[in-house]
Amino acid sequence: MDFVMNLLAGAIRVTIPIGFAALAGMISERAGVINMGLEGMMLIGAFFSVVGSYITGSPWIGLIFAMVSGAMIGLLMSVFAIGFKCEHMLTGVAANLLASGLTVVLLQMIWNTRGKSEAVNGLGVVSVPVINKIPIIKDLIGTISPLFYILVALMLIVWFVLYHTPIGLRIRVVGDNPFMAGSMGVKVYRIQYACMALSGALAGLGGAYLSIGDINMFSKGMVAGRGYIALSMVILGGWHPVGVVVSGLVYGVAQSLQFRIQSVKIPAQLVQMLPYLVTILVLFFVRSKNKAPAMEGVHYYQKGE
Amino acid sequence: MVKMKGKLKDLMTRSGILFSLASMVLALILCAVVIGILGYSPLEAYRAMVKGAFGNSYNISQTIGIAVPLIFSGLSMAIASKVGVFNIGIEGQMLVGSFAAALAGYYIKGLPMFIHLPLSLLCGIMMGGLWALIAAELRNFLHINEVILTIMLNYVAQYVVSYMVNFPFKAEGNVVRTEYVQDSARLAILVPHTRLSSGIFLALIVAIVLAIVLKRTKFGYELRAVGTNPLAAQSAGINQKKYIRLAMFISGALAGLGGAGEVLGYCGYYIPSMTQGYGFDGIAIATMGQNNPIGTVVSAFLFGALRNGAAGMNQSTSIPGELIEVLEALIILFVSTPGIFKYIKKQMKARKAGK
Amino acid sequence: MKAVEMLGITKSFGSKFASSDIDFHVEKGEIHSLLGENGAGKTTLMNILFGMIKPDSGKILLNEKEVKIDSPLEAIDNGISMVHQHFMLVDNLTVAENIVLGAEPHKGILFDREGAFREIQEIADRYHFVIDPREMVGNLSVGIKQRVEILKALYHRSDILILDEPTAVLTPQEVNDLFKVLNELKADGKTIIIITHKLKETMAIADSVTILRRGELIGRYSIKEVDEQKLADLMVGRLVNFSVEKKPMKDDMPVKLSLKNISLKKNGKQALNDLSLEVHAGEILGVAGVEGNGQSELIEVLTGVAQHYDGTYMIGDADVTNKNAKTILKYMANIAEDRRARGYVKSFTNWENMILGYHTLSDYMTKAGFLKTREIRKITEDEIEANDIRTEGPLQLTDSLSGGNVQKLIVARMLRHQKGLVLAAQPTRGVDIGAIEYIHGELIKLRDAGAAVILISAELDEIVKLSDRIAVLYEGRVAALRKAEEFTESELGSYMLGHDPEKEEA
């Protein structure tokens, strides 16, 4: 029992950054933009949240730094992918390279190191009244990073906006048929830019969890492929806000299991492989009935461009 | 008449190269601005880079040496792109290829060089090819997104190989690496004490063969048809799945050969992270070479110079070599965005008209 | 009063003029036909009115007041709506969601779904449309989808409706229904502009007509001043010969191709249902039908793209059931249904596309697998010349040619490699009249020379004009098959809709 509880509690924590990134990937794809740059957005978010906390001493301002810097990457990608019709995939690859290079160069500039930043004030954990009294639940999420609650709140808000507001309807149409949206006067580019900025901000929060939400410092390449994992979770979760975050748990459980059985005599490398194998297997066996937005990755041209 | 048109086409391809170079210059300028903003001297940075890449004959040899695996990863990306598959799994394919070559080079004993060396290279080729084939087959039959798949397979490759080199196949001593391969499996080092091996000839030959095959043969014709218009290819009696399978195998095989070349040439053994980053470089290189084998070779040399130059800069200045990644990112963006030059031209015209 | 007036409209794309100095006006409450061939600039002109394209110069007046329309949003605000040729609908949203997009009813920040249903039901009732606002658009037929588009215009309170080739995908009966709706809208005071290249329709529904040719204004006429022949001559700029001459069909010609009891499932739907057909040498067999009744699947079976069907497919004496495209290309040449998707490769030059599908013939390829580039280029050059294809030469990218010239290249390829059996699927879709005449002529020539031709077309006129026998496809089976002259047009229409006029009369 303890093992299961520990496993789940660990899984939820691992899921937090993936959940943010999956939500980020989902929202950009719903607006028709394939976001291969999640990895870079997370890395930038992880880095700048540390910078924000380092400069101001407040990890909360660090979070704002993470969102803004992530959004900037999103906008930069938009300029190329939407404005200049660069292939979405390549834009993402470029964003990841940019983030990877830039963070190291800035590490050198700010802390004069090339590996890890100084330790900064982190977000710590919160203990929410009521929830920390409910049996079982309290062991899972009674005391947890505030980003967990932010993630759940954002997931619900995104779901609500997407399915129950006019703007949500417009976003969904843009991903499915931007030409129709454009013909009805919907400002397609504006929605795509906005969704990419939002995507960057969300992914930035995911990155921030890794740094100021967990180890309270930045280390080179710390996102370690979570952005790509998140992309698979978008597919697995059927492009639905709740679906993609919950899918993140699949990876979370695998990763958490990996931590827990490392003490057993199996070589660490083979255990570390587990989450990736699980992701492949899940893609293999679980077929979501939802389809990708019909026109994702397709360039939209407005007004005789 | 035909000849004149042929010249016209030459000119067009040449203007393609021109465009790539212009993109590169633009990226260098922008990167200089970034360096400046970060508080370093762009001039100093670039001087250090040029010196690192071409400063003396040793550096030049190193530059060419680094270009060898980059040519392979670039060609690997290019051929996959030609058939319409985005092979982001070159990292993993190179990795398994290099490891397989290291094992074959050490454990197979008593063979003459003219058998052992090709055999070891072949192990790298097959292993890389098969690794890529996993993704191709899953895409063909289960329609799983190959991008996600190849990325996951990169991690799997990384951990599997990491396990193997740490446990069953670890060389004696403190360093985590495999044993030196037999002399009969080594590619000759052309310039002593550099990484420039006879692998360069292999790379050039492969590129030329690939260029001819793509352009002049039925195989290349059908492959390109599948890549740009799979439905039209199907109607023309071309088997799409077969070509995706073949192209992915070749793509992985090239990556594996690139990895094997590093093991059998430069290093002599496998050591973790020896090919790290080459796969992603391949994306940039093929993009800049416009997925054309010869263009890819040229851009691989440029990237070799950048990489080697960056290593020089890393040592001689306080600017981290990772800056090169920023430059790469900019190059990818500009090369894959022809619109940007039109936009700049238009802005310049508008400004002129404004005056 | 003039509802719409456009003065001195000029728009060029690069060095090509899509419209040059065009004056155009429509009276309030009339149905106006904007007539011209493909590429005449009709759609460009209307896209300008709808704010989708910005003109280089010229001005627009609505109700005799000058307005600026820089985006579809402003057009909609000014009471203009456009029903595009390719419907602008999202299949996995409801009718209501599709209609209200851009002006969603809301309560606070909430999307008012029920309000949307209610409001649309009201409008539908007012114009006697039978439609359920809660239905998913993906489940609707083409005719009903068009109705949704019109409802969209009405919901957005438009007084001016632009319809781009509205009858292209409809059966004769559906066309009649549409005309009824349009007349009802006209009676309600709406102004309607129809973009079309069809003369019959213009004569049937329009009050007045404006003719464009190659981006230039030819004239504006009241419908009483013109007839079909005059419109055709004005539209094309020369005298058009409508009739085709062909030798009488010979009886007792051998069967060249036969399908027996073909059934095919696609996406869980029975796309072809026990379908049987025979084509003889020296005849053109026309396959008519509303799009989506199995034509595409029939083409896939015929060309060997589909390889998992029941039944028997014979070409001559050879059993080619479930054989692949490569095998079938040896017997039957074809013109692809959708040339952009299947007819040519976009990154290929003319010489490469000239041999697509036949590239493994020994004329084009050495035994070692190398292409005989020089020979192929020479052949391509000859074909370009012989078929009057407007291109710089074999080395030009095919994708940069105009639709008509691409189709000519595809027809040239078909003619060069055909061996007495040809499948022509939508052979004249989206090409100009010159190319249509040419393609029709070549098909007739083939037939007269003894070839068997299967013509699958959504253009009923084309089927009637060329075919010796006509098969009507309905829900994946042959609903009727007779000699062409034994059908009346309304009978054809009935069969296309799944009715059986003979039974109904009885």
Concise description?
The complex is a heterotrimer of chains A (305), B (355) and C (506). Chain A contains 13 helices and two strands.
Give an overview in words.
The complex is a heterotrimer of chains A (305), B (355) and C (506). Chain A is mainly α and 305 residues long. Chain A has helices at residues 2-30, 38-56, 59-83, 88-111, 137-142, 146-164, 166-176, 178-183, 188-215, 226-236, 241-261, 268-272, 274-285; strands spanning 126-127, 143-144. In chain A, helix 1 (2-30) packs across helix 6, helix 2 (38-56) runs antiparallel to helix 3 (59-83) and helix 11 packs antiparallel against helix 13 (274-285). Chain A is globular and about 60 Å long. By secondary structure, chain B is mainly alpha-helical. Chain B has one domain: ABC transporter involved in vitamin B12 uptake, BtuC (Orthogonal Bundle). In chain B, helix 1 (2-37) packs across helix 2 and helix 7 packs antiparallel against helix 12. The mean pLDDT of chain B is 89. Chain C is of the alpha/beta class. Chain C folds into three domains: 2-236, P-loop containing nucleotide triphosphate hydrolases (Rossmann fold, 3-Layer(aba) Sandwich); 254-332 and 418-506, P-loop containing nucleotide triphosphate hydrolases (Rossmann fold); 341-417, no CATH class. The chains are: A mainly alpha (305), B mainly alpha (355), C alpha/beta (506). Chains in contact: A-B, A-C, B-C. At the A-B interface, helix 4, helix 10, helix 12 and helix 13 of A face helix 6, helix 11, helix 13 and helix 14 of B.
Please tag this protein with its features.
heterotrimer; A: 305 residues; mainly alpha; ABC transporter involved in vitamin B12 uptake, BtuC; two-stranded antiparallel ribbon; 13 helices; globular; C: 506 residues; alpha/beta; Rossmann fold; six-stranded mixed sheet
